[in-house]
Design goal:
By secondary structure, this protein is of the alpha+beta class. The chain contains five helices and three strands, in the order αβββαααα. The structure holds FE2/S2 (inorganic) cluster. FE2/S2 (inorganic) cluster (FES) binds next to helix 2 and helix 5.
């Protein structure tokens, strides 16, 4: 059974859509279920997330967790956004059924991937941020290999 909050964010998702010329865009997928999530971040010069949008091609829990994740990172600093873990997203939704917890991981990874993209574009390092892990083809490059 889904909580009221999950149902609310599934039927009325917040911040759905995309941001043109976003400062950071991250796409992650789960090969097992085939679901894909994309996050767009608009980050100002002080490193504050001014806007965030998402597109999710996936299950209801993935939509609800993306929606909640966008609410949790909006207005936060890049460093604070890193602390928005899948556990924090689950808690904010009053929990998810155990078989659906992995869906919230997609939200955490999508935010991290978008932050990673932002850092790459800006040429900065965000402490504690690891290269995104994505199953889908377009993100096969982890960005840390040397060309030779
Ligand atoms: Fe794939 Fe939910 S079943 S993200």
């Amino acid at each position: 059974m889904y909580t009221e909050k999950v149902m609310d964010h599934f039927t009325n998702p917040r911040n759905m859509g995309e941001i043109e010329n976003a400062k950071g865009v991250g796409t992650v997928g789960n090969a097992k279920c085939g679901d894909i999530m994309r996050m767009y971040l608009d980050i100002d010069d002080d490193g504050i997330i001014q806007d965030v949008k998402f597109k999710t091609f996936g299950c209801g829990a993935a939509v609800a967790t993306s929606s909640m994740a966008t609410e949790l990172v909006k207005g936060k600093t890049v460093q604070e956004a890193l602390e928005v873990t899948n556990k924090a997203v689950c808690e904010a939704l009053d929990g998810l059924p155990p078989v659906k917890v992995h869906c919230s991981l997609l939200a955490e990874e999508a935010i991290h991937a978008a932050l990673w993209d932002y850092a790459q574009k800006k040429g900065i390092t965000i402490e504690g941020l690891k290269p995104p892990v994505a199953d889908i083809d377009e993100l096969h490059d982890h960005g840390d290999e040397e060309e030779y």
